[in-house]
Amino acid sequence: MTASVTDERGKKVVGRIVGILIVAGAAILSVHVSRDLFTNPRTDDAYVRANVVGIAPHVSGPIVQLEVVDNQFVAAGDLLFVVDPRPYEVAVERAKASLQLTELEIEAHQHAVTSAEAQVERQLADDAYQRDYLERVTPLLAKKFITADQVALARSKVEASAAAVAETRAELVRAKNLLGQIGDVNARREAARAELHAAELDLGYCSVRSPFEGWVTNLNIAVGQYANRGEQVFALVDDRAWYVMANFRETFLESIRPGDRADVYLLSYPGHRFEGVVQGIGWALHQKDGATVGVLPAIEPTLNWVRLAQRFPVRIALEGRDPDRPFRMGATAVVTIHPQG
User: Are 291 and 297 in contact (CB under 8 A)?
Assistant: First the structure.
């Protein structure tokens, strides 16, 4: 009986010691985990991201050629689709013809300017003669070699020649304006060339090419569909740069700096570690509570006074691509930040 009691007491002592050790171990582990979280912030609220660009034609028309399928990889410069080029080919031919007509018009206006200049010279010569004649006959009136009517006629011819000079000079200015020559540049010719260049650009825009290497996504078009200028027909996921948007509690932000290294694990590739570097930390979040309505702040009534830490997005640029493990936009990630010394 005594041995049984002793064993029972020993078990209780051992149980208490084990309990104390468990509690102490849990406390120590909690402190260690807490310190590690602040030393090396970690979050599983993270997702893979890439830049997505909507592909829209610069011109409108039916699609006559489609060179890609959904989820296809394309290189920079690859042909994506073609808008019917025939109306734009006609516009180019029309612009070329307009340029040729403009050249003929410029030539005609140049001749008109030359003719107007000659007319001015002739009129100036006639005006000089009339003025000289008036000066010669005016003294003869006192000697009664000519009549007053003859002097008046000579004076009226001088006035008429002066008006004719002004008229021919105005005609010369008008001819030069119609010519459109400004220094070494002819405005008429440049306008026609600009129209031709615009038409050639529109024709070139009929062939829509990939601006960068990426992945075709959300392709829901077919040959024959009408494409409107400026309206997106599908999207390209930019494969040149991938990053992770990791949402960290604001209590961890003091431990995170741009340039810090990061370990990234993707749920789609368990056990494989990717490397990244912190590119930046978000500066603003949308706040519904406190938004301004009119001139007054709108604050919704609530009885919940628990203050939850906000999460700010931290952008982490991924490095070291693995051809066997391609990134996919939206993939879930787990991120651990390793602050610099």
Answer: yes
Residue-wise pLDDT for 326-335, tens only, equals: 999 999 999 9
In angstroms, the CA 259 to CA 281 distance is 11
Helices and strands: H and E segment counts in the chain? 4, 16
Residue 104: is it exposed, middle or buried by C-beta count within 10 angstroms (0-12/13-18/19+)? Answer: exposed
Q: How far apart are alpha carbons 227 and 229 in whole angstroms? A: 7
Domain boundaries, the chain: 42-52+236-338, 54-85+214-234, 88-203
pLDDT at position 239, please?
94
So what CATH class is 88-203?
Answer: mainly alpha
In the chain, which stretches have pLDDT less than 50?
31-32, 36-38
CA distance 296 to 126: 84
What backbone phi and psi angles, to 5 degrees, belong to 228?
A: -95, 145
What number does CATH give the domain 42-52+236-338?
2.40.30.170
pTM of the predicted structure, to 2 decimals: 0.72
Which residue, among 66, 48, 49, 46, has the nearest Cα to 57 in the 3D structure?
Answer: 66
3-state SS assignment for residue 120 = helix
**3-state DSSP of 313-341:** EEEEEEECCCCCCCCCCCCEEEEEEECCC
Q: What is the pLDDT of residue 136?
A: 85
| Spatial CA neighbour of 82 closest among 99, 61, 108 | 61
